[in-house]
Amino acid sequence: MDTLSVNKSHGGTLHVVRHASRETGTDMTFSVFLPPQADGGAKCPVIWYLSGLTCTHANVTEKGEYRAACAELGLIFVAPDTSPRGPDVPDDDAYDFGQGAGFYVDAMQAPYAANYRMGSYIRDELPDIVASAFPIDRERQGIMGHSMGGHGALTLALANPGRYRSVSAFAPIAAPSQVPWGTKALGRYLGPDRAAWRRHDAVALIEDGARLPELLVDQGEADAFLEEQLRPDLLRAACADAGIPLTLRMQPGYDHSYYFISTFMADHLRWHAARLFN
Amino acid sequence: MDTLSVNKSHGGTLHVVRHASRETGTDMTFSVFLPPQADGGAKCPVIWYLSGLTCTHANVTEKGEYRAACAELGLIFVAPDTSPRGPDVPDDDAYDFGQGAGFYVDAMQAPYAANYRMGSYIRDELPDIVASAFPIDRERQGIMGHSMGGHGALTLALANPGRYRSVSAFAPIAAPSQVPWGTKALGRYLGPDRAAWRRHDAVALIEDGARLPELLVDQGEADAFLEEQLRPDLLRAACADAGIPLTLRMQPGYDHSYYFISTFMADHLRWHAARLFN
Question: For chain A, which domains are there?
Answer without folding.
Answer: 2-168+251-276 (3.40.50.1820)
